[in-house]
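User: Sorry, folds how?
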Amino acid sequence: MNNLLKLYLSTLAVFAGILNVFGQMETSYRASAYGSVASGEHTPFWMVNHNWGMTALDANNFHVRGGIFHQQRINNDWSWDAGIDLAGGSSSPYGKVWVQQLYGRLNWKIWRIDMGSREEYVSYLNPYLSSGDFTNSNNARPIPQLKGSIPDFILIPYTKGNMFFKGDCSIGKYLDGQWLEDKALPTNSDYARNILSHSKSLYFRFGDIETRHKMQFTFGIVHVAQWGGVLYRYEQSEEGEWHYTVQHQPEGVGDFLRIFVAKEGASSSSLADQEYAAGSQWGTYLFKWDYKLANDDRLSIYLDHFFEDGSGMVFENYKDGIWGLEYKTKKKNWISGAVFEYIYTKQQTGPIHFNITMDDEHRSKLIHKGNGNDNYYYNVDYTQGPSYFGKTMGTPLFLSPEYNTGKGVNFQSNRICSFHLGLEGYCHPKIQYRLLLTTGQTWGRYYVPYRSVRSGFASQLELIYHPAQLNDWNIKLSMAGNTGEFFGGDTFGAGITLTKQGIIYAK
């Protein structure tokens, strides 16, 4: 990591020096300090989530961070930006000091290339008020990746200005192998290291609410995969002794293409890869309808539908998803934004997985009805699911693996029913508030159900003060609490965040 950081900074310095004579530019900084206390074993649920993995799970923790960011436009076609953001704190799974962000971006006309780790929220669900979508939430630290994209909607020719599209494709790598090993070994649990990532998305929008239409409809599909790496399985030998076996997963160009199209794995891959699809794969469909109200206020209805395999892609798990209603206005009202969501994931195409090793009578179930027990966020090879350093990369309502105590590195629950409300507004022109209220029940997993239903309630109130005389400062006070095992137990706490940001140089 140190060598990579040095190479990145030296390359950035040379690149910046060459382009310094061109175009408009701005170099800015951002620094913050955070501290919190809690009555229970853990920091309250909503204080841990929705902050890019910065807040530690353990109660009574703090962190500081500081970053420098540069943006530069060369001409009408070309622009670039880069940044480095360092952090340090207590009880963090990343160590005492870590690189939170380290990235570079190059834009050319409608195209963009990103390299590195960047906190970039790409979901269509509200980043502050939603409970968080299934694939692209802001709960975990960003992983390093290389991504190409068309980031903004582009008009499709010959559609009379009514149809647009955008998309992206990336490949990256998880750096949490040592953390996973440290958590798995004491419990003799399976785990994987040096895993590669792949994601892509494609969105279509019908209508343009910003310029000419009263309403618009957006449809999107997101595909995410974990692949490659080294699998460690705790198994019993023929002599009856238990030990770890090692499986090196193939990582060639052909293997990536298999991942890209969700095809079966090569002969050198694990048995599960060969029989089903290579790697661990999941994704979502987004359906979102926006309607423009008076004064440019907006009302939105959306469905975020999750799938783990072909049965989910053809909606055999049609009951499962995040059903949401959102209102927002640009005015500083008492209520400037509101989100209500109903989250249900109990169906999962039924309780039985009709796999290909079944007898001929039951193989027809696989062919005609698809696989049941989709077992969201779980894969036999990549047991940690969509998590990074134990923090979920999707919805936090499937309690993150970092909450596990002596139970391995996988998600313990994925069959839930939950209601969520998020509100924000202004009680004063300089004081903004944000309120989150969530209640839910979980039944565990089909194959590993809880002995009794686990319920819970979580809440958080944030007050964000923007001092009139200090425009580059803001102060955020957080008060939060949760009860019940759904959210990891009973705990109440408070935190404070001081943030300062400003311009170092502008041209």
Q: What stands out?
A: The chain has a mean pLDDT of 92. The CA atoms of residues 443 and 451 lie 8 Å apart. The two ends are 33 Å apart (CA to CA).
